[in-house]
Design brief:
The chain has 117 residues and is mainly beta. Helix content is 8%, strand content 42%. The chain has a single domain, classed as Hotdog Thioesterase (Thiol Ester Dehydrase, Chain A), CATH 3.10.129. It contains one helix and five strands. Pfam families: 4HBT_3C.
């Protein structure tokens, strides 16, 4: 994972990443749960701002590359990493990856975001 900062820290960064898990045990891993994992993270460019501002997804494409419905029966940590490919005039283009607890890529994501600041 890269050197990333918290949103609205004013310290800047084009990456965000870390680990995430489900708060409660889920009985069946579905695409909806995976989308929730991918969508839990803010756009990395919010770390460049010093005050809260709104941001909105304009386009979002998800590719499910591996889905093992048995991996989520125990509470485990999932990996996430997002990098901004370009950012200009309030718009960003980002690429993200979500990994399952065994380190296998599960989702590739491309997103265009507008930041209203």
């Amino acid at each position: 994972m890269g050197n990333w900062r918290l949103p609205f820290s004013g310290k800047g960064g084009d990456e965000i990443g870390g680990w995430i898990s489900f708060r409660e045990k889920i009985d069946c891993l579905t695409e909806e749960w995976l989308i929730a994992l991918a969508d839990a993270w803010p756009t990395p460019v919010l770390s460049k701002l010093k005050e809260p501002a709104m941001a909105s997804t304009l386009t979002w494409a998800l590719e499910f590359v591996h889905l093992d419905r048995m991996t989520c029966f125990d509470k485990k940590w999932w990996g996430f990493h997002c990098i901004v490919d370009s950012a200009e005039r309030g718009y960003t283009h980002e690429r993200s990856t979500v990994w399952d607890p065994e380190g296998q890529s599960v989702i590739f994501s491309q997103q265009t975001t507008a930041v209203f600041a």
